[in-house]
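Reviewer 2 asked us to include a model.

Predict the structure of this chain.
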Amino acid sequence: MSILERIRSGTDAGPLNLLLWLVVATFVFWGAGMTSGTQTATVATVNGERINAIEFARAFDLSERQMAANRTEPMTQDEREALRERVLQDMIRQRALVQEAQAVGLEVSDAEVAEALLDVPFLLNDEGRFDRRAYEQFLRRQGKTRGDFEAELREQLLVSKLQELMILGASVADPIVRRRWIEDNTKLDLAYVRIRPGAFRQAITPDEATLDTWTAAHEAEIQDRYEADRARLYDQPATVSFTQIRLTAGGQDKGLAELKAEAEALAEQIAGGADMGALAQEHSDDPTAEVGGSRSDVRVDAMDAKLAAALEGLEPGALTAPIVGDNDVRLLRLDARSEAHTIPLEEVSKDIALALYREEEAPVAAAAFADKELLPSWKETGVPPTDVVEAKGLRVDSTGPIPASGTGGGLFRPPEAMLTDARAAAKGDVLPEVYDQGGVLWVGQLVSRDDPDPSVLDEDGAVIREQALLRRRVEFFQAWVDDVVAKADVTY
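Predicted model (structure tokens):
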């Protein structure tokens, strides 16, 4: 159904013309608000076309917020750097594909962009019509202008056209269909051990002479690691330790003035020599009452501003005046203060050197364990050597039944080379080698195999062939994309 037919459905001509003008004119005029980036720094160029710092920052911010929404812990600096690189590479890929689409003469009209927008369910009202207010709310949540979003949508449509054009040449022969169908439907169950180099780090304990020699040869790396971790580990914020008594109404009919008077009376007792910790246990309504109201090493920049201000300028042992809050009154005694400071490299260089040394040696130790201990022991007995594995803090796992093609297996899918050997193995065979996947080593055994019924292929051949063709087209396009990006002139 065309865009005109969609909009006309269930509407009269007057509102139709207005709606059509609003939707299509949106794409003609809203794009004028896009940032050209001529005054911003260049993050990368793709065949001479700039990716500027503003558009990169927006893309990274959106990706970071999306990732944070699915996590409970904040990202580490290493994770942030990895995300930055992934976002940049995605933008380079997109820019190269758009350029390729333009080079072969593909275009996307305003009407096509408008029609794509009408296919977004959450931008339509209950009657199935484009809802401008919903669209503006969506843009605010995304932190984008209309022009930015619609330009991105146009590029996506352009790349989709390019994909449709390229996959027309993909085909798949019948023998390949049969082989892939057998691989997809042959179920393998593997017992395996994943050997992570990180599991060996703490066991690496060089003697002092060895570490000193290594340190002298790697001073630059130690300095670089210190600078990379400085903000996170070595720039120490100002902190305070204090004892507090917090008074609330506690279900009684007390106002702030009465609570303040109680705090002043307690302050007089403390000034007269009374134990503030004992008074906190007796009178404080704060959870810290159980430990005598004590709080240690609290970051000043993370404290309530009113409490931080009350402690500012006090000497250790001094008591604040009663601090009246919205629904409580507090009395604080400063016990200790640590000013903001930076731990110098000299104090931590040995720790950094040891960490770097362990990182360097851990892969060697992991490989030695896999090649010299685990695999020979497994081959000799024909069963996973659980005691050997657990002694290293590792464990034996199972893939469960997964396709021999490797299209399943979950998050920890075995390496392709391991699956290739498993396809040729007999039930019970320990696989012949140690397999490396991104620095993580695998050792395994084929526990069981479930082969498919060939008659199914004969009965459902047309559907199976269509599925194989679809996968072939995806693979063909991905390989072509990789080639386009590899040939692009990219500078940073």
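The longest strand covers residues 440-450. Confidence is low (pLDDT under 50) at residues 1-38. We have added this to the supplementary material.
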